[in-house]
What does this fold into?
Amino acid sequence: MSLAELIPLLLKASILGMVLSIGMRLHGEDLTWIFRHPRALATGAVAMFVIMPLVAVGLYLGLRPDAPTGLILMATALSPIPPILPNKEMKAGAGAREAVGLMVAAGILAIVLVPFAAEWM
It folds into this structure.
């Protein structure tokens, strides 16, 4: 196995390890905390699925990058939150329930919302 093949596998394994380490600290009800707090869910969903795509479109229209760069900009804006975000949220003061609950909700909402946002963009 070459180094070029090994690096993506190691990155995937490290992401899996980070998510697993957060998940091992939680209970089943912690994963659904965000669904019992609709204001927190709405705030997170609007930030990820409305504001970020609007910012990306604004940057695209303002900067007029070449096609590959524009595609990457749009894909990044549409992607759900990265697995490392819960650690950053917890360092900023959020609880594990909020951080992981938002990650779970974003994954579920992305299944429905990303195709619509991609069509709009």
The longest helix spans residues 38-63. Residues 47 and 113 are 13 Å apart (CA to CA). The radius of gyration is 16 Å. The mean pLDDT is 83.
